[in-house]
Amino acid sequence: MKTSKISKFYEKSLDERLQILKDFAQLTDEELQQLKSFGALDFPTADRMIENVYSTMPLPLGIATNFVVNKKEYLVPFALEEPSVVAAASYAAKLSSGFEAKATEPIMIGQIQLVGVKDTENAIKKVLAAEKDLLEIANAGDSTLVKFGGGARKIEARTFETKRGKMIVFHLLVDVRDAMGANAVNTMCERISPKIEELSGGEVRLKIISNLAVHRTVKATTTWKKDVLGEDAIERILDAYEFAANDKYRACTNNKGIMNGIDSVVIATGNDFRAVEAGVHAFAAEKGVYTTLTKYYKNKNGDLVGEIELPLAVGLVGGATKTHPVARINVKLLGVKTANELAEVIASVGLAQNFAAMRALATEGIQKGHMRLHAKNIAVTAGAEGKQIEAIAGQMVKEGNISVARAKQILGDK
């Protein structure tokens, strides 16, 4: 039976790891070879993706194990440079009782800025009265999206008093299905702008998607049993949670830890992590004060319950998800079939990552496991190779003296 619970994955050789992934996701020999090459993005592909290409800058790809979301097993690809993150997420998932997650419909917001309107109230009435016609105009330009059940759904209006005068901003709500949706939404906004100008008598300025996807959110939850964590650890974690819930300085770092996991999966699947970051942090301040994206409490049995809610505009069609060869393999490896399923896995990863960080901070301290990996990087910087890396790192950790200078001293003695 397919399982994400792989014992001591970190001890296995590269070939053994790849064989496990091949069996789990039915990867082809060609896909396996691309992963093994460590350089699957050739110049022509890279040159089509961005401008002025001169090289690539690869990130390590790691697999987070033990994830069960909505009773389905997942091996989750992480693309990042920071040590401890993959191991922490895997361990948090292992300790959990499995994640339950639910994404809302994939509705994105397109914004149309209108200026120079003399009677804003009347202009809004005229535009909203013509909503049906405007939605038809928007959808006429994207028959493919409409065919798959998506398309423009609604128009809303907001007004602002600014130093430049009063402005109206119309929100075009678009169901983008399995896309992130930027191109579709931006195009629709441009298509209906002339009609909005005609109806309102104003001038349209910006026509652009918003990355604050308040209609496209995900909730994930799980339970960590009291018998697994211990009562003292649960009390400590709850104190750590209250710190993040009530202090913006702590909340910022708390949410950064959540994004360690979320961004890693977003990048691995070829999605736009800058858009996700912008939306998530704006959402964290939605109530006027920046706060944590997660919530923790004890249930009636004394177990620890964790919850997360955040906007996640990720897709499976369009962009680098389809053009980047390794992103395509990572999506196949993950086994998600819809953008909503991808978002549900990513939200679960964010919750696991947050729990792992808070547990470490509240009990043994964050540096214990992290510093050993840091010591290995320092040893490499000092010139250590092969078995020297582990030996030098171990000695520096034992001494409590982790520095390039000390690593060079030890290396010189060997």
Explain the overall architecture.
The structure is a single chain. The chain has a four-stranded antiparallel β-sheet with strand order 3-8-10-9. Strands 5-6-4-7 form a four-stranded antiparallel β-sheet. Strands 1-2 form a two-stranded antiparallel ribbon. Helix 1 runs antiparallel to helix 2, helix 4 packs across helix 15 and helix 10 crosses helix 15. Strand 1 and strand 2 form a beta hairpin. With 414 residues, the chain is of the alpha+beta class.
Short note summarizing the structure:
The protein has 18 helices and 10 strands.
What integer is the average pLDDT? 94
Number of strands: 10
Poorly predicted spans:
none
Query: What fraction, in percent, of the residue positions are helical?
Result: 40-55%
N→C terminal distance? 48 Å
Structural class by secondary-structure content: alpha+beta
The percentage of residues in β strands lies in 15-25%
Report the CATH superfamily of the largest domain. Answer: 3-hydroxy-3-methylglutaryl-coenzyme A Reductase, Chain A, domain 2
Please give the CATH architecture of the largest domain: Alpha-Beta Complex
Count of all domains: 3
CATH class of the largest domain reads Alpha Beta
The main pleated sheet reads as:
4 strands, antiparallel
What is the N-to-C order of secondary-structure elements (H for helix, E for strand)?
HHHEEHEEHHHEEHEEHHHHEEHHHHHH
- Physical arrangement of strands within the biggest beta sheet: 3-8-10-9
